[in-house]
C-alpha cells in the first residue's frame, strides 16, 4: 500500500517503471479524444467540481486512462470525498501512476499522471481516509469506466 511518504519519494526521486509506454503527438491524441478530454488529459485542464460524469458512479469496475486505456483505479478504492471529483485512496497497481511536483497557482501540490502515456489525471493529497491517508482527486474526463472487470 502506498502512503504519502512513497508519493513524495516518487515525486522527488523518480517514478516506478511502467509496464509499457504509449507516446503520441498532440495531433494524434486530438484524433482519438473529444476536445474536452484533450483539454483535461493532454493540456492539464481541470473540470469544474461536481460536473464530472464519474462523480456519482459507484458501479463496480475499473477506471481506465481515457488516452491509452491502462487500468488506473478500481471501484473498490473509490470513496466519497465531497470534493466534486472522483476520489480514490490507492492506484490499482503501484506503477500505474506517475507523480510530479506541481507548483502552479502558488501552491505546492503533487500532480498525478498516467504512467504509461503521461495523461494528466489530477492531484493526490495527504488528507484521505486511513489506512493509506491518500486522496487521489481525479478528473472524470481523464478516465473511462470498464464495468466488464469486476472484482471477485
Ligand atoms: Zn494513459
Strand content: 25-35%
Strand order of the largest sheet: 3-4-8-7-6-5
> How many domain modules?
1
Indicate the structural class: alpha+beta
Determine the mean pLDDT. 94
Write down the overall geometry: globular
Q: In CATH, what is the homologous superfamily?
A: Peptide methionine sulfoxide reductase
Taking the sheet with the most strands, its summary is: 6 strands, antiparallel
Q: Order of helices and strands, N to C? A: HHHEEEEEEEEE
Spans of at least 5 consecutive residues with low confidence: none
Amino- and carboxy-terminal Cα gap: 20 Å
| CATH first level | Mainly Beta
The CATH architecture designation is Beta Complex
Compute the CA-based radius of gyration.
Answer: 14 Å
Can you count the beta strands? 9
Bound compounds: zinc ion
What is the CATH fold-level name? Metal Binding Protein, Guanine Nucleotide Exchange Factor, Chain A
Count the DSSP helices.
3
Question: How much helix is in the residues?
Answer: 10-25%
Description:
The chain is an alpha+beta fold. It has helices spanning 4-13, 26-32, 35-42; strands spanning 62-65, 71-74, 78-79, 87-88, 97-102, 109-114, 120-125, 135-138, 143-146. The chain has one domain (4-146): Metal Binding Protein, Guanine Nucleotide Exchange Factor, Chain A (Beta Complex), CATH 2.170.150.20. 16% of the residues lie in helices and 25% in strands. The strands form 2 sheets. The chain has a 6-stranded antiparallel sheet. The longest helix has 10 residues, at 4-13. The structure holds zinc ion (ZN). The site of zinc ion has 8 residues, from loops.
Amino acid at each position: 500500500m502506498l502512503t504519502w511518504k512513497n508519493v513524495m519519494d516518487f515525486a522527488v526521486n523518480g517514478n516506478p517503471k511502467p509496464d509499457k509506454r504509449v507516446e503520441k503527438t498532440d495531433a494524434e491524441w486530438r484524433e482519438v479524444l473529444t476536445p474536452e478530454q484533450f483539454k483535461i488529459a493532454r493540456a492539464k485542464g481541470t473540470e469544474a467540481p461536481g460536473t464530472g460524469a464519474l462523480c456519482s458512479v459507484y458501479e463496480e469496475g475499473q477506471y481506465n486512462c481515457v488516452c491509452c486505456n491502462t487500468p488506473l483505479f478500481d471501484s473498490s478504492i473509490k470513496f466519497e470525498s465531497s470534493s466534486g471529483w472522483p476520489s480514490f485512496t490507492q492506484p490499482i497497481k503501484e506503477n500505474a501512476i506517475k507523480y510530479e511536483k506541481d507548483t502552479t497557482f502558488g501552491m505546492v501540490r503533487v500532480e498525478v499522471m498516467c504512467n504509461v502515456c503521461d495523461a494528466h489525471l489530477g492531484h493526490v493529497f495527504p488528507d484521505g481516509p486511513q489506512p493509506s491517508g491518500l486522496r487521489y482527486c481525479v478528473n472524470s474526463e481523464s478516465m473511462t469506466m470498464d464495468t466488464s472487470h469486476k472484482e471477485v
